[in-house]
Amino acid sequence: MALATDLEIHKHGTALLDLCTDVQARIPRAFRASMGYRIADECVEILVLIGRANAARLPQDRATHLEQLLERLQVAQILLRTAHAKRLIATTLWANSIELTDAIGKMANGWLKSARARLTGSPVGDGIAPQATATPSAEPQGYTPGLFDTATSAAAPAA
């Protein structure tokens, strides 16, 4: 197991935090508390979750941390998008944040796919297409539950 600080995803997360501290400093005072601090806090939490996922020994624990990481990344993207839409941050900062969040999202989804494959015992990236199931799922393959999912797996009450 490598140190979390040596991972490429951690380096991108650190770069995102650095960018978000620049965003926080440039946001007008009226929005700094509501948006600037929140953006930076989400980036810190992303770094914490990267470390937790790296330290997790069980695949289900790793998957849980990565799912939380992806949710926090979505929140950071929403806040950054809103800050740009309100013209609180420059377009260059916004463009850099898009590149960083996309890179982190791709790496986290790949890591999550690997962790889920370890849970099921199936190989990852063997070049063989998965077999079709008899009942197609309503969710696309590789779907990661997101921030705005409202579906629950509650069973119907017994009659």
What does this structure look like?
With 159 residues, the protein is mostly helical. It contains four helices and no strands.
Which SSEs are present, and which pair or pack?
Blueprint: H1 8-26, H2 29-55, H3 59-85, H4 91-120
Annotation keywords:
159 residues; mainly alpha; 4 helices; elongated
Backbone CA Rg: 18 Å
**Structural class from helices and strands?**
mainly alpha
- The stretches of 5 or more residues where confidence is low (pLDDT under 50) are none
Shape: elongated
Main beta sheet strand tally, sense and closure: none
Q: Helix count? A: 4
Summarize the structure.
With 159 residues, the protein is an all-alpha fold. Helices cover 65% and strands 0% of the residues. The chain has 4 helices and no strands.
